[in-house]
Amino acid sequence: MKALSALSPSVRQYLLITGNYWAFTLTDGALRMLVVLHFHSLGYTPLQIAALFLFYEIFGVITNLVGGYLGARLGLNRTMNIGLGLQVVALSMLAVPTAWLTIPWVMGAQALSGIAKDLNKMSAKSSIKLLVPDSQQGTLYQWVARLTGSKNALKGVGFFLGGALLAMLGFATAVLAMAATLALIWVASLCLLKQDLGKARAKPKFRDILSKSRAINILSAARMFLFGARDLWFVVALPVYLSTVLGWGFWSVGGFLAAWVIGYGIVQSLAPNITGKKSGHVPDGRAAFVWAALLAGLPAAIAVGLSAGWSAEVVLLGGLMVFGALFAINSSLHSYLIVSYAKEDGVSLDVGFYYMSNALGRLLGTLLSGWIYQRHGLSTCLWVSSGFIALAAFISLWLPRHDRSASKAHMPM
């Protein structure tokens, strides 16, 4: 505690926000894996499993729009804590006898979880903008990358945790244990977060939820296709393929996806160094296009390898490693650009609109993942994923670019 009190107020708030985000992310990743594996074991089809996440993604779209408005009016500490509280309720709803876990009930719990996740995410990402001076873009990029990368690494730990808890405790006990733990984190967050963080000086009107910035609108469209491309094969199709076609058990599926997401998060944290920050540059629209273009053909290449009869495990594991690294850099670039483009007063409005597009992409990808996999298999999911990434790259051509010689940034704190 003494070391924490010696830090600057902005660093203390950054650490509190990051810790809050980490705790939430662990339960979110674990719950995703628990639901996919548990309901697959109950005999649900891939399309039915995808439908369980329908409200999770739909309410994520709505939450990011309305949540940005609420964050600007109420303060980001309140929207973050509301998100934590709702996740506790969502987890508790699933800790019921199996006979009660009907599709409408689970979809309702997932709706609350979707609202909770996007309130928490929007609040955390928006807060960083307020803790770093606008002149220190290099520091901003570094802090965003660390927050995003560490979150995704912990989401991977959550995937493994979900598979492990399902194997050791069963579904109901696992979600109840997570609800109890997160409730303790929620109480601590209520006491420690700065009360007026992110509250806009001028009260925004409801019509302000739609972005008027050309750069943010273009970046949001690219983000929608980018994340739709990932979830199109990663959310439902891949875990079901590993379980049914390759015969992997709960531990193996959860452990593999956990390791992949952990590695993905580590690369996200390192993205500023990979994309040139050490030489004094911060990314612009040109970088977003280049890195999306590099990623676009990879899912199609994996599909070609599977169709050629090569070892499915070698093709998938090798392809996923490369895909994860390239996608992590794309994601980290986007996360920095939205925080950089957003206006400081009422930052959550711009960030909320952007992550609304992110949620819309996840919704589209999740539904297509279950439907295409059930009708046409994993290879078709991969081909469509490549098409989505190509669209994201094309849209990125219209993002603002700056003179690299003028983009020198201060070193990170």
Protein model, in words:
There is one protein chain. The two termini are 20 Å apart. The protein is mostly helical and 413 residues long. The model is unreliable at 404-413 (pLDDT under 50). The protein has a single domain, classed as MFS general substrate transporter like domains (Growth Hormone, Chain: A, Up-down Bundle), CATH 1.20.1250. It has 16 helices and no strands. The relative contact order is 0.17.
Key phrases:
16 helices; disordered C terminus; 413 residues; mainly alpha; single chain; Growth Hormone, Chain: A
CATH topology: Growth Hormone, Chain: A
Uncertain segments are 404-413
Total of helices: 16
Measure the end-to-end span: 20 Å
SSE order and pairing:
Blueprint: H1 2-5, H2 9-41, H3 46-52, H4 54-74, H5 76-94, H6 103-131, H7 137-169, H8 171-192, H9 214-234, H10 237-244, H11 250-274, H12 285-296, H13 298-307, H14 312-341, H15 347-376, H16 378-396
Helix pairs in contact: 2-5, 2-6, 2-7, 2-8, 3-15, 4-5, 4-6, 4-15, 5-6, 5-8, 6-15, 7-8, 7-11, 7-14, 9-14, 9-15, 9-16, 11-14, 12-14, 12-16, 13-14, 13-16, 15-16
